[in-house]
Amino acid sequence: MRRLVLIIAALASILGMSACTQEASGRGVPSPELAKELRFLSTIYEQGILVTNSTDAINMGYGICEALDTGFSREDLIHDAQAEGVDLEAEYVIGVAVAELCPRNLSKLKQ
Fold first, then answer.
1. Which of 3, 21, 71, 76 has the maximal Cβ count within 10 Å?
2. Mean pLDDT along residues 53-66
3. Residue 26, class by beta-carbon neighbours within 10 Å (0-12 exposed, 13-18 middle, 19+ buried)?
4. DSSP code at position 6
5. What value does the mean pLDDT take over residues 66-75?
6. d(CA 13, CA 81)
7. Cα–Cα distance between 75 and 109 in angstroms, integer?
8. Would you list the domain boundaries of the chain?
9. Using CB atoms within 10 A of its CB, is residue 49 exposed (0-12), middle (13-18) or buried (19+)?
10. CB contact set of 69 (below 8 Å; sequence gap of 6+)
């Protein structure tokens, strides 16, 4: 449960921040892992959710995946995010994290 609280606290601190400080730049084709992380970041950024640190955002996304892997439900994550004052954005970020970082959990979002 403590891990879930830390994930939600990170979610609350990341969402709605003022600037994205890191950009993806490089040459060649990114690894599959990097590609899915970049899709995650660009998808939440395109929704207007700005982050101050892309590493923290990616770690938060993987934290969502880990929470779902260990038995927490979508409703658990949303409920805890709402308790932290994060509402609609949290549900969107949870969905994007699952779609891009751990699609194995997609069925848990439909429950």
1. 76
2. 91
3. exposed
4. H
5. 93
6. 11
7. 9
8. 1-18+53-111
9. buried
10. 102, 105
Q: Print the SS3 string covering 15-75.
A: CCCCCCCCCCCCCCCCCHHHHHHHHHHHHHHHCCCCCCCHHHHHHHHHHHHHHHHCCCCHH
User: Which residue type sits at 73?
Assistant: S
Q: Which residue has the higher pLDDT, 56 or 27?
A: 56
Predicted confidence band of residue 37 (pLDDT cuts 50, 70, 90): very high
More confident residue, 107 or 89: 107
Q: What is the mean pLDDT of residues 45-71?
A: 90
| Local confidence band at 79 (pLDDT 50, 70, 90 cut-offs) | confident
> Which residues touch 22 (CB under 8 Å, ≥6 apart)?
53, 54, 55
